[in-house]
Fold Ribulose-phosphate 3-epimerase.
Amino acid sequence: MNHLIAPSILAADFANLQRDVEMLNASEADYIHVDIMDGIFVPNISFGLPVCEAIYKHAKKPLDVHLMIEKPENYIQAFHDAGAATISVHYEATNHLHRVLQQIRDFGLRAGVAINPHTNVQLLEDVITDIDLVCMMSVNPGFGGQKFIEQTYTKVRRLKEIIVDAEASTLIEIDGGVNIDNAPKLLEAGADVLVAGSFVFKSDSPIDTIKELKNVGS
Ligand code: DX5
Ligand code: ZN
């Protein structure tokens, strides 16, 4: 499978959100990654439903919503209504992961599970066929612009094995500190989707940087 690119809107200029969404529309991005932080699950607050709706209003690419919030089960309907195509909930943020995955799929959306750097991929083994996408955190969630954690490569390989053994079609998404240096190694290890915030938006030409990431390995 050709890999997919999901630029993270967290690194966009919020005073020019429409402009930045239109740039993503014109780019080779496959999804728009939307980071929702509640200040409780993670020590930072990003933005919430009205901003997600505003992004959706202008977006021509599907929204990949990453919920860094406690009790995500209470907000699935709301983020569905706000335009999410994929919703990822954190493994560490709910007591009933299986139930919330069903809830997401019942809305016709793709169900994702995000895991913190300390969370062992083995913990997903029993629900892997219920997961459309694993958002593997390669930094501690809460902030853009952090340094990539090298242990991620090993985790990707281990998770890939679990997916292949289960004959599941789960995609592996890498989130945090992704750039042009680690992208080839991540894809080689088995990653399918690369999220990139700072590397895209802080570059001189975000649209060219997205193209560069998309062309890795071809
Ligand atoms: C971190 C977020 C990431 C972040 C990635 O909590 O989940 O999606 O936006 O940003 P960079 O690519 O700058 O690490
Ligand atoms: Zn994210």
Q: What stands out?
A: The mean pLDDT is 98.
